[in-house]
Design brief:
The complex is a heterodimer of chains A (about 525) and B (about 1100). By secondary structure, chain A is mainly alpha-helical. Chain A is about 50% helix and about 5% strand. In chain B, about 5% of the residues lie in helices and about 45% in strands. Chain B is elongated and about 135 Å long. The chains are: A mainly alpha (about 525), B mainly beta (about 1100).
Chain lengths: ~525, ~1100
């Protein structure tokens, strides 16, 4: 009897163990080995072969150029609203102290736009570092040395652009040229001097200029970075450092490349049709469609768009042209009305013949970002996310050449400078010989003034005015003259290092001179 | 006896049959053994009895009163309650012998409590056998026993165990004594149960009644204020789950507890009906949660649903209907106040005054978006249990509207639970819960619009024509009423969920129990959405501009569909040993479990560029739009798995010395192979002093236990799967001209060494019951440390603004939990009072072990640093307002400080204000949590008052920091500084004064609050009034929830969100937590 009970119990136990072992067997080895579902890792991504082996990483840097942190509200504040070309715009207290301080100085270290710019450009740089590291170290693709160099050049151009913005905005910044495998421990890098940053930018741009192609397939890659873009930006880097000879020579390389000219009429340059024209050296690419009205675009035009109602509800109305800009043009300069969109009086009519409504909160808006009514209807949006941003135009390169040549001095250089300047004026004239006469002076100082005036008229409401004032050393006097009397040369030429970043770094980062700790 | 034998032999020689029954007998005996009774009959009459002396029944004592009876009648009575029978032979000879047919004896009885009230469902068992039954609904039982001398065991939850010798009785009256309150109560622990008195950890059990009587659709909401150490932050949104924290915040990442519902691991219990819950156990200390391993690190909430009680057939119905309303509106300026403040602001900016000519309205936007909302909970339960099976069926239906218009949530729950006892040793069963929910959710951004929209704007001209906001906020703020109407009922979300399990249980050798369970949880969520055409808007003219009416003729209608399928499979196999040797009780457990969780999601949307899709849900399917129109779609999925082995030993000696050990080995697919497996465990010790001989003399103390436990668990909850792999995102793209190319970018920075957080802690406690069990108390001290905390940190700008999850540092939580209760009865008047209090001190012991950066949240308002509370508020301390120019000379200032600005404290006394003057300003996490309840009852009437609150924390009024446009003001700004002496708190109205937006104590409010959580008055209608109906119980009640809150905060609720540990405590215009007034009914048949 007893043995029978033991036997049945034993049997039961065996059954239970059998069930368990079956269940375990079903899940034993692979049970915990789960792969991501519907997601690639950098190891499993089937890199496309058609567009070049490293394009997928390069395109991620390009995508960053369209981000809100890089080329949007903060960018417009720092490069535009700070200058004498324009005011904050919108309604008086819109944007609060963060925006008002950009207009009137001083900018506080806790200013939100300052942090935005820091984060945005470092994000761009990090994407470039990722691409460079992939090109140099990855074994996933086999590519020719030539393709590798070209791809690296493209990434290094964009990294250099990021650092060029940072060094002009902040002065001393941390120099990061690699991808950290343990960023939380390693990436807290102290700031480097502007000299080191500039040297680094020059290296990157020289490499890019050496390896980038002169052109790309215009069908497939309009607006992709070229040798001309690298040299054009390098010229500006030299110019900023007052390296006149290098600036002149590098600008000359662009002018002699045969890829660019001043044939695009001024009023076409800023239209959708004028995108990637022979004027375009470096342009942030954006597009939009009915299905994807924003994701492939950039929130740039809408920040400055007319702040109206209904069909005029095009944007926030920020960065409005200043009275000072309005009155700074030479008589009859057609560039004035192409730059300024007036909202009152007889001039209140747009490039496309649309009459502006009364009662808008601002007197003037940036006419260069006005979108075409056809595109608004096609995309089904008023916000203009499809508008490219003209970062570097050919006229800018020509004027840089003129400036560098004039500063270098000597009759031949001054003559060359004057000739270059007058080519820009000729185009601006648009065939009307009664306006904008050629500059004839051979006095270096007079020509310097003429070139500076021309830069302002030609590039108004674009992104160089503040940086130009700073590098010419006339920021304080110029800004005080337009009422921005808080500006101080010993402080406001640079933005403060963002308070948040100093906090995050545990004070490894230090504040710029003149700003409160 | 020898004589008797001789007589027997003699008698055998006689022949049958002579009629018996002529002689009359008179006999009166009391408790006399049968043998003696027979002897006295022999003396009185001529009858002689033949029997074996060995018959045990002859020793049975019997009471007889026979007058003038014949021998048959007497003998019938004599053997009635015995296994004996008799047989007449000739010559007045009668044979007494055992009757085989009478061997099994039928016993009936009634079981009642001290008050004489019958107890249904009491288990009745014959000792040392498997023979047993249970009492019926009126406390009666009947049972066949093998003989008249067995011992019966009576057990019932809530009553003391009782053994009763049958002593040949056939009808019993058994009185059970209520268990020394809840000490004998069994609580649910991981993979089993344990007597509360044997616990060495800290577990609080809340009965289902306490949950069902609160008017909440989510059962967890009802726990607020009931458990020491448990923090619940409720949301007022219809159907929303609250934030739950057990003993503070242990991690900088996910701090949600694990839910275990009838064995299934869950992340929420949204699918349960409050009326279906039998009990909720809150497991707080590491020793109790160690058995749950890696998923239990933030504490565990075990939910047990109702089962049919043994021997019971019961139908019950619970229903309540209530109205919810917003009790604390945020005080905003009206049109007059707004104009005054906006004028002041423009004046301070030297800007021209605003033209109010066309803005003459005075609109209270809050009133227009809130409503009095309905809430209705219903539960019907049918339970039936018999010898072989137990069945419970329940149907629940809950509807909750939100106080925000058009916010509505419905759920329907069907549950079936069945258990079959195939043999005495084999039991199988299963559970199925079917859940359907439907939500009509408006866009909640309407609340922030209503707080910000200028009150000077009128609402609408007609049904499709609304007013737009003035130019100073048109681009940022939508007309709140237009917005709520445009998006009302535009998104239909609903879903189905089926949660079920089957189990088999078998007893082996009486000592062992094997149980295998398989669980499945399948969810199917649907979404159908519609984007309507916008309304037409009237733009009131400003500065002489004309008033015009605009319509966005570029907008098109579109439809969206989305489906999510979630699946979860779990299996548990356990072998439990239960052994009692002398005074030693031992329960052992070994087990194995696996868990798989997966999901799949697909969705799409199409925009119709030509036709306008009607605003009618019947049309809202993708196919309503011709596929040549623009469309987009999505599809993704997840998979993760866990596998674990576990074991536990609970040992007690003489109910005095307790030892609990547990162990779990856990593996998770979320981590790389090298970091996948971990070991967790605990040890607990207890000493019941009151069982010691020397203690028995102290009569005022009924129970006293000292306990201590140590445990280690892991915490990896809430981590997305595969973070150790270098995930990429392919969403951003390269654009050239109008061509768009795919790009690849890292989604985050992977940490290949990522592993779970390790939680270690010790609990020391004392449990006592005094004064005849009327006073009970539990006091626990705990000290817990979380090592290698995982934080979702956003790396600073220089590292590329990526999120990065890594193991960072150590956080300690130390605290005290006290629960005290008093319960007594004076005549018909009964009352109880209970209170709980917990104190938690959160301290970051070290941070940045693996990171060189500061951990900041909310743009630096919250900081996490060594030595202080996690995510504390860090900023300047306001000491006043600079009243005059001489204040600026006299006092430390920022370089840009001006008159009318906030004056900050110069903490380091260096004569100027700079970032070094920022200090600890408080913690968002309340260190003090308390709750209390008062129950009073008189006959059928009962009254319940519950209160709950927190203290010691701060709330960040973040909603006041927005500067992106001119927004409506809160009334505090009416006191803004406007000249010397005007205000020393509120700075000047000037948006250009950036200093006043620096994070400072100006933006903090004291978070202390005390809330009357519940006031309920109920009446049990006396049974005699409906005796003819088969109603067993009928209770009606009225209640008010959250009726009064005492608080200094200015928001809708003092409960600021604590979801993100490193950026907690910010009130950005939260959804209001409403007051609920309801009436209810409970009826049982």
């Amino acid at each position: 009897m007893k043995s029978y009970i033991t036997y049945t119990c034993f049997l039961k136990l065996m059954m239970c163990l059998l069930v368990t072992s079956l269940v375990c067997a079903g899940c034993k080895k692979g049970f915990l080995d789960r792969n991501p579902q519907g997601k690639y890792t950098s190891d499993t991504y089937p890199y496309p072969s058609g567009t070049g082996p490293y394009d997928t990483y390069l395109f991620a840097i390009y995508a960053e150029l369209r981000s809100f942190n890089v080329h949007s509200q903060a960018f417009i504040c720092a490069t535009g609203i700070r200058s004498d070309d324009g005011d904050k715009g919108s309604t008086p207290s819109d944007g609060g102290a963060d925006a008002i301080d950009m207009d009137n100085f001083p900018v506080q270290p806790n200013n939100i736009f300052v942090n935005t710019l820091w984060v945005g450009y470092y994000n761009l740089i990090n994407k470039a570092n990722i691409a460079i590291s992939q090109i140099r170290n990855s074994n996933t693709v086999n590519a020719s040395e030539e393709i590798k160099k070209q791809s690296e050049g493209e990434a290094r151009f964009l990294r250099a652009y990021g650092y060029f913005m940072l060094v002009r905005l902040f002065g001393r910044v941390p120099l990061i040229d690699q991808v950290f495998d343990d960023p939380a421990a390693q990436s807290n890098v102290p700031q480097s001097s502007p000299e080191l940053i500039y040297a680094f930018i020059e290296e990157d741009l020289k490499f890019a200029a050496q390896h980038l192609p002169l052109t790309w397939d215009a069908e497939k890659f309009p607006g992709r970075l070229t040798k001309g873009a690298a040299n054009g930006l390098l010229a500006k880097v030299y110019l900023t450092q007052k390296k006149w000879a290098q600036a002149m020579a590098t600008a000359d390389l662009v002018m002699k490349s045969g890829q660019y000219n001043l044939n695009t009429p001024y009023d076409k340059i800023f239209t959708e049709e004028g995108e990637n024209s022979s004027e375009s050296v470096f342009e942030v690419q954006a597009t939009a469609s009915f299905v994807t009205p924003t994701a492939n675009g950039v929130q740039y035009a809408s920040i400055m768009g007319v702040r109206g109602t209904g069909n005029w509800d095009m944007g926030w109305g920020w960065y409005t042209p200043s009275r000072n800009l309005d009155t700074s043009y030479e008589a009859g300069d057609p560039r004035r009305r192409r730059t300024i969109l007036y909202t009152t009086g007889d001039s209140a009519i747009s490039l496309y013949g649309e009459i502006l409504p009364a009662g808008l909160p601002n007197l003037m808006y940036n006419h260069k970002v006005l979108t075409s009514p056809v595109m608004r209807r096609t995309v089904g949006s008023l916000s203009g996310n499809w508008m490219n941003i003209r970062i570097l135009r050919y006229a800018d390169v020509v004027l840089m050449y003129a400036e560098a040549a004039n500063e270098l001095g000597g009759a031949a250089n001054i003559a060359a400078a004057r000739t270059a300047l007058n080519t820009v004026r000729t185009r601006a004239r648009g065939g009307n010989n009664s306006i904008l006469p050629d500059i004839t002076t051979d006095n270096q100082a007079e020509l310097r003034e003429a070139i500076r005036r021309e830069r302002r008229a030609e590039l108004a409401m674009e992104h160089d005015r503040f940086f130009d004032l700073v590098r010419w050393g006339i920021a304080e006097q110029t800004l005080h003259a337009v009422g921005k009397t808080n500006f101080r040369n010993d402080r406001d030429v640079l933005l403060p290092i963002p308070r948040t970043q100093i906090d995050l770094s545990k004070n490894v980062l230090t504040q710029n001179p003149g700003y409160p700790n | 006896m020898k004589l008797t034998l001789a007589l027997i032999l003699m008698c055998m020689l006689y022949l049958p049959v002579e009629i018996i029954g002529q002689e009359r007998i008179n006999l009166q005996v009391k408790k006399m053994p049968i043998a003696e009774v027979l002897a006295s009959i022999e003396q009185q009459t001529g009858y002689r009895f033949l029997y074996s002396d060995d018959l045990p029944a002859l020793k049975n004592k019997i009471t007889l009163n026979a007058k003038n009876a014949n021998i048959n009648q007497v003998l019938e009575e004599l053997v009635m309650h015995t296994p004996l029978t008799f047989n007449s032979l000739p010559d007045k000879l009668i044979v007494i012998k055992e009757d085989p047919a009478k061997k099994d004896i039928k016993v009936t009885g009634l079981v009642y409590n001290e008050k004489g009230i019958p107890i249904p469902g009491v288990s009745v068992q014959v000792k040392n056998t498997t023979i047993g039954t249970a009492t019926d609904s009126v406390g009666r039982f009947s049972l066949i026993v093998p003989d008249g001398n067995v011992v019966l065991i009576f057990t019932s939850i809530g009553y003391n165990y009782k053994e009763e010798a049958l002593n040949n009785r056939r009808d019993l009256n058994i009185s059970l004594v209520t268990a020394a309150q809840s000490l004998e109560k069994v609580v649910v622990i991981g993979y089993g149960t344990q007597r509360k008195r044997d616990l060495t950890g800290t577990i609080t059990s809340i009965g289902g009644d306490d949950i069902a009587k609160m008017p909440n659709t989510n059962p967890i909401s009802s726990l607020q204020g009931k458990v020491a150490g448990l923090t619940i932050v409720n949301s007022g949104r219809a159907g929303a789950a609250p934030t739950v924290r057990i003993r503070g915040v242990n991690s900088t990442g996910n701090s949600d507890p694990l839910y275990v519902v009838d064995g299934v691991f869950q992340t929420n219990i949204d699918y349960l009906n409050p009326g279906d819950i039998e009990s909720i156990e809150v497991l707080r200390d590491p020793s109790s949660i160690a058995i749950f391993g890696l998923q239990g690190g933030n504490g565990v909430i075990i939910v047990t649903t109702k089962r049919a009680a043994k021997g019971q057939t019961r139908v019950s119905f619970q229903s309540s209907v209530g109205i919810q309303k917003v009790v604390n509106k945020i005080k905003l300026t009206d049109a007059e106040g707004f104009k005054k403040l906006y004028d002041m602001q423009l004046q301070n900016l030297n800007a021209p005054a605003f033209d109010y000519t066309n803005y003459t309205a005075n609109t209270d936007w809050q009133d227009l978006i809130f409503q009095h909302a309905r809430i209705n909970n219903n539960t019907l339960t049918v339970a039936n249990s018999s010898e072989k099976s137990a069945t419970l069926f329940s149907l629940g239906y809950n509807v909750q509207e939100g106080v925000l218009k058009y916010d509505k949530y419905k759920k329907l729950i069907v549950r079936l639970n069945q258990e079959l006892r195939i043999t005495d040793n084999i039991k199988i069963g299963g559970d199925v819960t079917g859940f359907y929910w439907k939500e009509d959710a408006p866009t909640t951004d309407v609340i922030s619009y209503a707080l910000r929209a200028a009150p000077i704007v009128p609402v609408q001209a007609d049904e499709d024509l609304y007013y737009s906001m003035p130019s100073f906020q048109r681009a940022q703020i939508a007309n709140p009423v237009a917005r709520i109407n445009q998006f009302k009922n535009n998104v239909i979300r609903d879903g189905y969920r089926a949660v079920g399990n089957i189990f088999a249980e078998t007893k082996i050798l009486r000592t062992f129990t094997w149980r295998s369970s398989f669980y499945a949880d399948l969810g199917f969520d649907n979404l159908r959405g519609y984007t309507p055409l916008p309304y037409r808007y009237i733009n009131l003219g400003e500065k002489g501009g004309a008033t015009d009416t605009t319509f966005n003729n570029l907008a098109r209608t579109s439809v969206t569909q989305e489906q999510v399928q979630t699946r979860k499979f779990q299996q548990d196999h356990t072998l439990t040993l239960f052994k009692k040797v002398n005074k030693q009780h031992i329960t052992g457990l070994v087990g194995f479990t696996t868990l798989f969780i997966g999901s799949t999601r697909v969705g799409g949307s199409r925009t119709d560029t030509i036709l306008n899709i009607p605003r009618d849900p019947d049309f809202w399917y993708l196919d309503i739009v011709n596929p040549n129109n623009p469309l987009s779609n999505l599809g993704n999925g997840t998979e993760e798995a866990f596998m674990s082995f576990f074991a536990r030993v609970n040992y007690s000696y003489a109910n005095k010395y307790l030892l609990n050990l547990s162990y779990r080995r856990d593996g998770s697919s979320k981590f790389s192979k090298a970091n996948r497996w971990g070991n967790f465990g605990s040890i607990g010790l207890g000493w019941v002093l009151s069982e010691e001989a020397f203690f028995k003399k102290i009569s005022s103390i009924d129970f006293l236990k000292l306990r201590g436990a140590w445990g280690t668990v892991g915490s990896g909850m809430g981590l997305p799967p595969h973070l150790y792999l270098p995930g990429v995102t392919i969403r951003s793209s390269g654009v050239f001209g109008d061509r768009v190319y795919p790009s690849v970018t890292p989604e985050y920075v992977p940490d290949p060494n990522l592993h779970w957080e390790v939680v270690r802690g010790i609990d020391v406690g004392i449990d006592a019951r005094l004064l005849n069990n009327r006073l009970s108390s539990e006091i626990t001290f705990y000290d817990r440390t979380t090592k290698d905390i995982i934080t979702n940190i956003t790396l600073p700008g220089t590292a590329g603004n990526y999120t990065y999850k890594t193991n960072l540092g150590t956080i300690a939580n130390k605290g005290l939990e006290v629960t005290i209760g008093w319960r007594d009865k004076v005549g018909d008047f009964r009352y109880g009072i209970s209170a709980n209090y917990s104190y938690n001190k959160n301290k970051v012991t070290s941070i940045g072990d693996n990171i060189n950066f500061e951990i900041l949240g909310n743009n630096g308002a919250n900081r996490t640093a060594t030595g202080l509370s996690i995510g504390y508020f860090y900023g300047y301390r306001q000491i006043g307002i600079y009243q005059t120019a001489s204040d600026l000379e006299r006092m430390p200032v920022l370089p840009t400080s001006r008159v009318g600005d906030i004056a900050f404290e110069d903490v380091n006394n260096d004569g100027l204000i700079d970032s070094d003057d920022r200090v600890y300003l408080g913690t968002p996490f309340p260190p003090h949590n308390f709750g209390g309840a008062l129950n009073v009852g008189y006959k059928g009437l009962d009254v319940l008052v519950e209160a709950q609150g927190v203290a010691g924390n701060k709330v960040y009024v973040q909603r006041r920091t927005a500067t992106f446009a001119i927004l409506n003001y809160e009334v505090n700004r009416l006191n803004a500084w406007n000249g010397p002496g005007s205000s020393n708190v509120e700075p000047i109205l000037d948006a250009s004064r950036g200093n006043n937006y620096l994070f400072s104590s100006y933006f903090l409010e004291r978070g202390d609050y005390l809330r009357v959580r519940m006031l309920q008055i109920g009446y049990n209608i006396p049974q005699k009034l409906f005796q003819k109906a088969t109603i067993k119980q009928l209770r009606v009640y009225i209640s008010g929830q959250n009726i009064v809150t005492f608080s200094k905060t200015t928001g809708y609720t003092p409960e600021a969100p604590l979801g993100d540990p490193i950026a907690a405590g910010a009130d950005n215009g939260l959804y209001p937590v409403p007051a609920v007034y309801s009436v209810g009914l409970n009826v049982a048949f």
